[in-house]
Write a structure and sequence with these properties.
The complex is a heterodimer of chains A (205) and B (127).
Chain A (H helix, E strand, L loop, with lengths): L2 H22 L3 H19 L5 H26 L13 H23 L12 H10 L2 H22 L23 H12 L11
Chain B lengths: L1 H30 L29 H26 L10 H24 L7
Helix pairs in contact in B: 2-3
Classes of the chains: A mainly alpha (205), B mainly alpha (127).
């Protein structure tokens, strides 16, 4: 066991633990945060493989951006369910499929690469990558910018409000002085909110 | 290998940082008096009381900002190898510095076009 192996095993365990917690977590937000831990662990896996730039990409794009996008996706769609416990009906089936996939993949990888001689990993340096991008792959690089542009414009077209007031106004969390009002009004308002007749557009600044 | 050892230095920093945090919090826990009361668990010990729950649906327009962040994050990733090589380029290398400069500014320019579109469509303003 060299230092590389120790780091690889430790980071791999961290990643696997994060992945298990992601799927077993009952709270949607906790699951998303554990998912970010898993992605960060994958960045750590890249480090002993001498893929420094890839680790940086993993952290900046996946931990930084994709995890944020996940959070926003959850807050936009599933947030109103609140702390409702998550539990799938097909837990056994999911475990069987995941375990079968694991066995098949590890058998394939070990069978394909298990008897190859090992060598010291010296990954490409970041300036080799830069030269390669701008000498050999400059056209795909520019096409990539068009792809990002298309994605950006598509997202704007989908998310933009046409006239500034297309959607139903959301129920806002109202903060009011409790002693200014009688307790019955509070209960009536809560009932109105839970019955879904809120969202009448009134907003208290 | 030497690169990997440099990451080891970072790892030591992270571990020492976590240890320091743990030690400080433990010492705090040992030394402070513990007088729990339900008042201390309220959101604001003094001030107005909050009604309702904290779980609310966010406005869809926040998503644009998250998405803009993702796009320009990917752009920033490509700036790293470019910034590393651009200073070493000259007439003897495989690509000229002007070529690399133009290629990168084409890339940034295309993405700025998207930002200009967002600006023009008014998704950056909060009316």
């Amino acid at each position: 066991m060299t230092g590389h192996d120790v780091v690889f095993v430790l980071v791999g365990l961290l990643t696997a633990g994060g992945a298990v917690l992601t799927v077993t977590s009952k709270n949607l937000m906790h699951a998303a945060l554990f998912f970010a831990v898993t992605l960060g662990g994958i960045a750590g896996v890249f480090l002993p493989l001498a893929a420094d730039f890839l680790a940086l990409v993993q952290i900046v794009v996946y931990v930084g951006a994709v995890a944020v996008l996940f959070m926003f996706g959850l807050m936009l769609t599933r947030a109103p369910i609140g702390r409702e416990a998550l539990d799938g009906q097909n837990r056994g089936l999911a475990m069987a499929v995941a375990g079968g996939l694991f066995v098949v993949l590890s058998t394939l990888v070990i069978g394909a690469f298990g008897d190859l001689p090992t060598a010291e990993v010296t990954g490409p340096r970041i300036d080799d990558l830069g030269i390669a991008i701008f000498a050999d792959w400059v056209l795909p690089f520019e096409v990539l910018s068009m792809l990002l542009l298309a994605a950006l414009i598509g997202a704007i077209v989908l998310a933009r409000r046409e006239t500034g007031e297309s959607g139903e106004e959301l129920t806002v969390t109202r903060i009011e002085m409790a002693q200014d009002r009688d307790p019955d009004a509070l209960e009536r308002e809560q009932a109105a909110l839970t019955s879904g007749s809120g969202g009448d557009g009134e907003e208290h600044a | 290998m030497s690169n990997f050892e440099q990451w080891g230095t970072l790892a030591i920093f992270v571990i020492v940082g976590c240890l320091l945090y743990a030690v400080i919090m433990t010492v705090n826990r040992i030394m402070r008096p513990s007088v729990p009361s339900p008042q201390k668990l309220t959101t604001y010990e003094c001030g107005v009381e909050a009604l309702g729950v904290g779980w609310a649906q966010t406005n869809i327009r926040y998503y644009i900002f998250a998405f803009l962040f993702v796009i320009f994050d990917v752009e920033a990733i490509f700036l790293f190898p470019w910034a590393v090589i651009i200073g070493d380029l000259d007439a003897t290398t495989r690509i000229s510095p002007v070529f690399a400069l133009v290629a990168m500014f084409l890339f940034i320019g295309t993405l700025l076009e998207g930002l200009a579109y967002a600006w023009k469509k008014g998704v950056l303003t909060w009316d």
